[in-house]
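Bump. Still looking for Pentatricopeptide repeat-containing protein structure tokens.
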Amino acid sequence: MALQRSGFSLSISKFFSFLPNPTSLLSLYTQSPSLVDDDNVYCAVSKFNRMLDMRPVPPIFAFGKILGSLLKMKHYSTVILLCKQMELNGIHPNIVTLSILINCFCHLHQMTCAFSVLTKILKLGYHPNVITVNTLIRGLCLEGELKKALNFHDKVLAQGFQFDEFTYGILTDGLCKIGETKAAIQLLRRIIEGQSIKPNVVMYTIILNRLLSDKLINKVYDLYSEMVSNNIRPNIYTYPILIGALCKEGKMKEAKNVLAVMLKACVKPNDIICSNLMDAYCVVNEIENAKRVLKAMTQMGVVPTVYHHTIMIKGLCKNKRVDEAMNLFKEMHKRNMVVTTVTYNSLIDGLCKNHQLDKAIELFSEMTEKGIQPNMYTHRIIIDGMCKGGRLKSAQTYFENLLIRGDCVNVYTFHAIIRGLCRKGLVDEALRMWSKMEVNACTPDVITFETIIRALFEKNEYDKAEKFLHQMMRRGLLKR
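Sorry for the wait, here they are.
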């Protein structure tokens, strides 16, 4: 059934109002240096202009072909300008060119214009197909207008329009992205009850991924079981989610069983599955198994990345195998891998915790010399390492320099130096640092309060400690 016109009252006359009025489309196009270099786009626009001058004018589908190719190349503004030029030359659009125009407006976040084109489609007596309507729903979802997208869906559905599985994939994805997982599951139930559209693996996978992100592991299992009972086979995107869920629960045996099922189904493991397994093995201190996964990756056709090596370095450091971590780090350099701040942080932290502060500082210097920017976590590691390594003065100087330079510091950076000062009984210095926290937009947390209060009690300064306790209660950090 065609969409009725009464639901849309947007003005078509303003539909090109935000665009310029080019005297020569080609000359306007060539003003953009990014487009000049693109021979394909230049040739397409040139051909389009030549077609405008032809007599007789080529059929509309020939223009649509060029517009479609430009759409695929993501030159949305160019398509819109060409459509305007076409209409100025008296060439009437058809359903294909108008649908392409809707797609372009949606990509450019011009939803008012997109719906104006829909109004024009209806006034011309065309029947929009499901691809066109899906494009509009996707556009609304990308703008975060889920309520409008669902209302539009309901209105169109009430008129007898038939949607497809892509429609519900778009809506499910949109709901999950704004954290409305419960609504996404309810939508899935509506589809199953309606029986006109069969839910597919994409819809389930989108929701499973969100449930995993929300750490709702039991719900991941339940929904996965439901999916399998509905004879929907998992795909390359579903397996990593389930394996990730099992790994987060420390259920390594079950995770390996799912991996075996996946391999039996001839689904090739990807880098996400490998990183999930490695990370989980490191968490439960099964380092040798993590190393086996890293080694097996190339045999499975998966290229180990910096991320995988960083997981391994972190796991080795956690298990006090810092020398092995350093060797792996050197191996990364030999392979010309671009080492990140996270990799350096993992190794510097490992060295500090294993009482190799000089090596940690040396590595930190190497990091900055190579132009790799330290982050707040790096600063916390260095300050904490210096404090625990008996170099409190160096830690204070380092921290003060951060404040002078205006570098980003957070509550954890402050806590590291405050804890170091309190350990040495320098409570007044710690309180001075405390006063600087709020000046630097850092709100003290429970741990920082407890550190200060404990230090004050040890100094027999009970009145001050009591004031901090009351302050904790006022801030809602301690129940009365």
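Residues 1-128 form one domain.

Edit: fixed formatting.
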